[in-house]
Amino acid sequence: MTGPVRPGPVQLGPDDLVLALETSCDETAAAVVRGGTEVCSSVVSSQVDLHAAYGGVVPELASRAHLELVVPVVRQALEVAGCSLAPPGSPGRHCAAVAATAGPGLVGSLLVGVAAAKALAMAWDVPFVGVNHLEGHLYAALLEDPGLALPAVVLLVSGGHSLLVEMTGVGEYRLLGGTVDDAAGEAFDKVARYLGLGYPGGPAVEAAARHGDPAAVAFTRPMLAEGLALSFSGLKTAVVHHVRAHPEVATADVAASFQAAVVDVLVTKALRAAEATGARSLCLAGGVAANTALRDAARRAGEEAGLHVYLPSRAMCTDNAAMIAAAAFVRLGRDGPSGLDLGALPSLAFPVAPGAA
Ligand code: KG4
Ligand code: ZN
Questions:
Q1: What fold characterizes domain 148-317?
Q2: Does the global pTM surpass 0.90?
């Protein structure tokens, strides 16, 4: 990620600790990771209950909640990792760098994490680095399986993004494809709202789908036949049209059929990407990767295709700060720290352009 000041790469060692903060949306998270791979602590405070009454994330409420939670969450992450809040030089274990998600995300929420991380970096006199949230998600699999066979295709499906990324080495990616309209998680959230299933939408649709027939409604599989582009807006509209035309249809059947269509498209495209690039592994990342139907289908199809399939734990799929710390370790070594004038970057894109090496 670009940042205002780059005094040069900072190579951290295998025993060095990075504290990272993640506040891009509705989770206040902090984690300490050792040597870029060992999670010493990972604390996530969810605001789900706060936003549930409104059926979605209310940005102003989210930033206020981050403000209240950021200090206790950081304190707990340091405590669990056995780290001191006092500056290096004093007795105890200390962090060698502090990172925060700089974007993409909600500007007011991002600012809380970025400001807190910069304050700690200044107080401790250690490097600060801003991390791209999407790059962070890519490290979920590597954090849990450091020996992951590369190159890997990562299907990154979250509430704001749906990307297919080739990971050729640590810190080396190529964007293979992405959604041309809604993200997969956004489609789950919108369909859940329309069906009156509540928030957050993904887990609600998954729960409803458990009692439904995935073959009950033959929903469209957008852009299935070719390429690596994804599209979910038409599928969401198809759900609305179907329910309007057939008001008697069982909600569980609609949820199961919608979920089956999303899974079918995602798995087909991920396998196509793996085949096109000669990948050895297939990984899932992002909140939607917590979906059991997607996990089961990806494992089955990937293994049939001879790929090593890695499914990160559900806690590592959804937003957390351990993945931000792992990405920070790599960014510090490759680009160096960000300047202390780095602000929130709500529209930050994926680190590389489509097709770039
Ligand atoms: O990665 P994430 O925690 O936050 C973002 O960076 O967006 O992803 C959140 C998204 C939401 O859209 C949520 O509905 C979806 O992930 N999600 C799921 C499941 N759990 C979370 N979607 C489908 N099935 C799930 N079990
Ligand atoms: Zn995320």
A1: Nucleotidyltransferase; domain 5 (3.30.420)
A2: yes
Q: Are 57 and 104 in contact (CB under 8 A)?
A: no
Average pLDDT over residues 62-85: 96
Q: Predicted confidence band at 356 (pLDDT cuts at 50, 70, 90)?
A: very low
Pocket of ligand 1, candidates 258, 294, 318, 320: which has the most ligand atoms within 8 Å of its Cβ, to mutate?
318
Predicted confidence band of residue 332 (pLDDT cuts 50, 70, 90): very high
Residue 223 CA to ligand 1 center (angstroms) comes to 22
Band of pLDDT at residue 357, cut at 50, 70 and 90: very low
CA of 8 to the centre of ligand 2 (A): 28
Residues with CB under 6 A from ligand 1: 25, 158-160, 185, 188-189, 200-203, 206, 286-288, 290-291, 318-319
**Cα-to-chain-centroid distance, residue 289:** 9
Q: CA nearest 312: which of 175, 176, 147, 139?
A: 139
Fold of 17-138+319-335: Nucleotidyltransferase; domain 5 (3.30.420)
* Chain centre distance of CA 297: 20
